[in-house]
């Protein structure tokens, strides 16, 4: 896939959309120093190129009672495709798991899990180990979120 050629106006539009995708085209155009139609055309082009994906809403987890954030370090002794398929299916099927990454190094996977409390985390953990055999799991409770953003530097 070729990398899209983004000019400074495209980058300004992307910054505005990342700050608030719900703002009107008129507002975006005014803030980036353009007019509505060219901004709309650029947004449509960036969607077609895959630069802009789906649009969604960010929710406050604590307002929803999801006060505990765990980072789960997973080590496995299994590295065959069947195990990996089961593990990935299990992780993808659980809404508590917000992120999952396969890592280089001593830890095979890291999961970001958002739940109400330790008991809810244990339910997540028990369901996970019912689905797949895991060699070692370490759960780290985040005491304070210092920075969290979805905004990419463009």
TrEMBL record:
Keywords: DNA-binding, Transcription, Transcription regulation. It comes from Pararhodobacter aggregans. SUPFAM superfamilies: Dimeric alpha+beta barrel, Winged helix' DNA-binding domain. One of its GO terms (biological process) is response to amino acid. InterPro entries: ArsR-like_HTH, AsnC-type_HTH_dom, Dimeric_a/b-barrel, Tscrpt_reg_AsnC-like, Tscrpt_reg_AsnC/Lrp_C, Tscrpt_reg_HTH_AsnC-type_CS, WH-like_DNA-bd_sf, WH_DNA-bd_sf. CDD domains: HTH_ARSR (cd00090). SMART domains: HTH_ASNC. Residues 6-67 form the HTH asnC-type domain. One of its GO terms (cellular component) is cytosol. It holds the Pfam family AsnC_trans_reg. This is ArsR family transcriptional regulator. One of its GO terms (molecular function) is sequence-specific DNA binding.
